[in-house]
């Protein structure tokens, strides 16, 4: 189903050509939904932008556009406001016909992209031998939501987890384990992840202070890179142990990923350096092989290099990222590659993308996008940490959210004198707790930092997951109370008369445009805002309009509004990685 916004944009574009000729065929009609009902439902500002070009007043241009508009079945007579704005008020009968189409559609009227394109979303990316912490939260859930939206839109999405499973840290850890805990080098599960992290920290201190240990650790790296059997065996044990811990978090968050860590690209690194050398892009700087970048300078104004091979012959993150791009283009056949990482890596990716384009590793036909995000802060406005000052472990944060959600639920049940089964309480607490954490993050513009507060994110009021989940429960309650099968409702006689009915219907019909925005701009908070406003509009409708007690045809119309609202909330929340509850 073509969106109402696109329909009006097309109509204004056709009127422009009819009124002023083909030279305006590519002119943006500048049609958008209005924020204030007194200006109608949609507004076109194109007349103001054309005044200088056409040497006419904006109002005169607007009058000519209106004279050539063919939208009698869609809109009331368009009105000119102010200096030349064209305001459109959509006819209730047209809204009703579109709402009927949405209700009859399995996808709520949203079309899939054609042709299907391959998109890679690179997100989460924790490091082996380290626990996932709150810093991994944003990459994981933002990346998952972006992948869900693109999958729903019809893209062929490959979700990649570029874990840190290679490099100096493994030589350091293996060398230390050989000394203090040799059983861990040969026995699976000899250590749990917490012990492994503690030992890693001790190994790092030793590495920083002991030159002899540094040499031992570097030799372990060489052995690992050369494929020494015992080193590879130990490395695999460490990876497997971490992988199981990561998976427990991903299961809790309902995240699907294909792991392809740094080690995967190790066999291709030398070829990358050879290719850069062949294209005469490499320069030596302090013994390292580098590519000097355009637009990147140090504080003295001197060009900055991207190091692709260190003076000791080792490779670094940039080399791996170039090899990854090469593989994703040639082997995965990606049309677009999306990297979801913190904003601090923006310069790194800008540099890597520049070199990849210079070396023809990244062709013009493949788009690469860095999706940056800000920090998770405590309520004091500083980086969120535990009371002891440690980085907050992600598992602890999620467990605490579920515990807090359960406490709130049990208090509410006691106040309402309700009795529920243990299974109901545990499931509801799990869904609400995890959803609250996800939604609190996704509802922020990802480029901003945000303050983490259990009290705010678990509130039943405001822009929170519990508020949206409760809005979904209401139409489900109507269905149960009236013994209504929403799927059997006929959309032939939809009647929209009350203001709250019209407001709700208009908002429901903007879903296509919102999902299109998220698909293009990769900002899930726009979907969150839409769902929050939908919940508000439904609650106003629910409070002001009788549903089950209404006479026909209003009764069926209002049931259809309830059904489409519930389905829209369920779909929208699913694209955020949030399941619904039928009762709360």
From TrEMBL:
Motif annotated as 'HIGH' region, chain positions: 126-136
Chain ranges of the DALR anticodon binding domain: 468-584
GO molecular function, one term: arginine-tRNA ligase activity
Residue ranges of domain Arginyl tRNA synthetase N-terminal in the record: 6-90
InterPro entries: aa-tRNA-synth_I_CS (IPR001412), Arg-tRNA-ligase (IPR001278), Arg-tRNA-synth_N (IPR005148), Arg-tRNA-synth_N_sf (IPR036695), ArgRS_core (IPR035684), DALR_anticod-bd (IPR008909), Rossmann-like_a/b/a_fold (IPR014729), tRNAsynth_Ia_anticodon-bd (IPR009080)
Gene field: argS
Location in the cell: Cytoplasm
Enzyme kind, highest EC tier: ligase
Protein name, entry field: Arginine--tRNA ligase
Gene Ontology CC annotation, any one: cytoplasm
Pfam name, any one: tRNA-synt_1d
Species whose genome carries this gene: Hyella patelloides LEGE 07179
Keywords on record: Aminoacyl-tRNA synthetase, ATP-binding, Coiled coil, Cytoplasm, Ligase, Nucleotide-binding, Protein biosynthesis
UniProt-listed Gene3D superfamilies: Arginyl tRNA synthetase N-terminal domain, HUPs, Isoleucyl-tRNA Synthetase, Domain 1
